[in-house]
Design a protein that fits this description.
Length: about 300
């Protein structure tokens, strides 16, 4: 079982047509045909959208993505048109709403990995490969890879796992030219971001991008970028291969959900329980800390 513990109802806003409720973002179309992307405070873990929100999370993801889009602007165009609140939108959408170009999304999760963790580690331990790419012996949990790699995945529906695919499968799906551009752009953006993050004391272990094509067929970077939801950020000071690394993402929530304290069995049919206040507070402060460390800006 998986999905939303409680599926949120889309808001009725005059002039906006609701398109989609994603795990974290709600999508609307405005009268000009642009996409209005509203980041909620929802959090997902183990393929569930949890019943408890993390205050300010939507604003952190939005502000951080905007900051990164600026850092990357010379590498790839981004989808944001405006941060102005659409007329008639609720005041609490402020700071977490982006008016974006409506793109034809490329149906590939473009993952770049510079370090071994997560599904990459599991595959490496079984076969010494990640997404079919051969890697040297001797790597362990958290090791830096000899060079960053492009490890695409298919985009799953809410409640399903993304699945790693080979580069050849991507090329078959989207064409050789687009596949090559996805890989090149993903690795270029990852390289830039990894260097910026490293200067600020954060290891960018891996990250996921989504791209779309504009009306002229140009590749545009979309969705959110380089946030704790789409990336593994590790404090550089405590990075030490050979064990799971502490991280600025939802690890705290995952650890609590799988601890006896939650009373929840991941493999059961039961939806996960509400998060206690201290787990919410600790998770919120990790999101804020990641924002402040990366941007060098105070949150408020
Ligand atoms: N510029 C854009 N044009 C069209 N779609 C976009 C654009 N930017 C992002 N998206 C889509 O908006 C959605 C963002 O919602 P969210 O991240 O909450 O969803 P998700 O859980 O990752 O995926 P899903 O939409 O399958 O639930 C994604 O489906 C993403 O592909
Ligand atoms: Mg998403």
């Amino acid at each position: 079982m998986s999905g939303f513990v409680e599926k949120p109802e889309p808001l009725q806003v005059p002039g906006l047509t609701h398109l989609h409720t994603g795990k974290v973002r709600d999508l609307y179309r405005n009268e000009a045909g642009d996409l209005v992307m509203v980041a909620s405070d929802r959090i997902s873990a183990y393929d569930w959208v949890l019943p408890t929100e993390i205050p300010d999370k939507g604003r952190v993801l939005t502000r951080l993505s905007l900051w990164w889009f600026d850092q990357l602007a010379d590498l790839v165009p981004h989808h944001v048109l405006s941060t102005d609140l659409p007329a008639g939108a609720p005041a609490d959408w402020e700071g977490r709403t982006l008016v974006c170009r409506s793109l034809r999304m490329v149906p590939v999760e473009c993952v770049a990995r510079g370090y071994l963790a997560g599904s990459g580690l599991a595959e490496y331990e079984a076969t010494r490969t990640v997404c079919g790419l051969a890697l040297p012996e001797g790597l362990t949990d958290g090791s830096e890879l000899p060079a960053p790699i492009f490890t695409p995945a298919t985009k799953a529906a809410v409640g399903d796992h993304d699945e790693n695919v080979t580069y050849e499968e991507v090329a078959r799906e989207v064409g050789a030219e687009t596949a090559a551009l996805l890989r090149q752009t993903t690795l270029a953006v990852y390289g830039r971001a990894r260097d910026i993050a490293r200067e600020r004391g954060i290891v960018l272990a891996d990250t996921k991008f989504e791209f779309g094509l504009d009306a002229d067929g140009r590749l545009v970077i979309a969705d959110e970028v380089l946030t704790p939801d789409s990336s593994r950020f590790w404090p550089a000071a405590s990075w030490s291969p050979g064990r799971a690394q502490p991280s600025y993402d939802k690890q705290y929530v995952r650890d609590w959900l799988t601890s006896p304290a939650s009373g929840w069995d991941r493999r059961s049919e039961q939806p996960p329980p509400a998060l206690p206040a201290e787990v919410v507070a600790a998770t919120r402060s990790r999101y804020l800390e990641a924002y402040e460390m990366l941007t060098g800006l105070p949150w408020s």
